[in-house]
Design a protein that fits this description.
alpha+beta; Pdz3 Domain; 4-stranded antiparallel beta sheet; two-stranded antiparallel ribbon; 13 helices; about 50% helix
Length: about 375
């Protein structure tokens, strides 16, 4: 219940994290739209009534709105923040207005503008991690086992202290962090773990055990674990070029891991209660912020990847839904009809709202509020 009483310790980090990531996402849309000579009417952080803002010299209204759960860039020709167009309004435009209207741009220009938001989130992750790797250093611990917990999956499966893990299934292992990522994505199936022992390669079949872990804030999490410990954590500072390259690799690993986890939820191999909403993000933001700036930047980098991927899902209302409509336009040679797009956006909005309700329910269960309310009724 600490989340409910943490006050500014949770709210401020949450607002900082969300504002930065939303700004980065919307800035991607804005910059590519301006590059393609689209007039921008509004750049908003948040939804709902405006709290404060200003209008720049080209007529764009920059503002912060009351509901800090997203944002939008409203371009000339849009009928609403979701970039729906009004056919009547588009037909009435003069040639000068069509020249700066988003909906009158060529197909690939529109694709570039829409894709720029998620791309900006991925780019932010690369830049943030590259800065950390070049200054603080990249976590890089040799994949050698320092300790095997008695009775753990690793002990039962035959792993020993001093073993160096070189491969898990088809994934090559170069550092201990790779082991953690591969094991966390296990869906209950045995892992083929190859280790170097006494100058020879030995392959073992081990099934990680789902274990409840309590963090330093008292929150409980369920993870598949082998039951091994590293010999120590090392940080290697990279030169700028190497830092960017390795940050790109790390970002690719985050994308791959996230998509794998989502697919496991879809097929039922991973519990859907791992889906979190704004309350979970707020709680995690406050907790991570207590670990310092480095931990908070790591958290923002991971969250930025998730934001980019979510927006690429082919659901109308999201960027991926727009790209899906543009793919249909490319195949048909003309845009989908206004009614088909309207029905698609209605369905997409219903899906997004359903997901938000589900995620918020998970959040309430996670922070213990549902259990507390049930206690009042008994």
């Amino acid at each position: 219940m600490g989340f409910l009483t943490g006050g500014l310790g949770y709210v401020v980090p949450f607002l900082v994290v969300l504002t930065v990531l939303v700004f980065v996402h919307e800035l991607g849309h804005y910059l590519v739209a301006r590059w393609n000579k689209v007039r921008i009417e509004t750049f908003s952080i948040g939804f709902g009534p405006e709290l404060f803002g200003w209008t720049d010299r080209v007529g764009t209204r920059w503002k912060v709105s009351a509901v800090p759960l997203g944002g939008y860039v409203k371009m000339f020709g849009d009928a609403d923040p979701a970039s729906m167009a009004s056919p009547e309004r588009l037909e009435e435009m003069t040639e000068a207005e069509k020249a700066v209207s988003f909906h009158h741009k060529r197909l690939m220009q529109r694709v570039a503008v829409v894709a720029a938001g998620p791309v900006a989130n991925f780019a932010f992750t690369v830049v943030a991690l590259a800065l950390l790797f070049a200054t603080v250093g990249q976590p890089f611990t040799p994949p050698q086992i320092g300790k095997v917990e008695a009775g753990s999956a690793a002990a039962v499966g035959g792993l020993e202290p001093g073993d160096t893990i070189v491969r898990i299934d088809a994934t090559a292992i170069s550092r201990f962090e790779d082991i953690q990522r591969a094991v966390r994505l296990d869906d209950g199936k045995p892992l083929a773990i190859t280790v170097q022992r006494g100058g020879k390669d030995v392959t073992l079949s081990i099934t990680p055990r789902v274990t409840t872990v309590t963090d330093r804030f008292g929150n409980q999490h369920r993870f598949p674990l082998l039951g091994i410990e590293r010999q120590g954590v090392n940080y290697i500072r990279r030169n700028p070029l190497d830092a960017v390259w390795r940050a790109g690799q790390e970002t690719g690993g985050l994308v791959s891991g996230t998509l794998t986890a989502v697919w496991q939820m879809v097929i039922g191999a991973r519990p859907a209660d791992e889906i979190g909403g704004p309350l979970r993000i707020a709680q995690m933001s406050g907790e991570v912020a207590q670990g310092g700036a480095v931990a908070l930047i790591w958290f923002m980098a991971v969250l930025s990847v998730n934001l980019g991927l979510i927006n690429l899902f082919p659901i109308p209302v999201l960027d991926g839904g727009h790209l899906l409509f543009y793919a249909a336009e490319a195949v048909r040679g003309r845009p989908l009809g206004a009614r088909a797009q309207e029905y698609g956006f209605r369905l997409g909005l219903a899906l997004v709202l359903t997901l938000m309700v589900f995620a918020t329910w998970n959040d309430l269960v996670h922070i213990g509020l549902i259990k507390l309310l049930k206690g009042f009724g008994t």
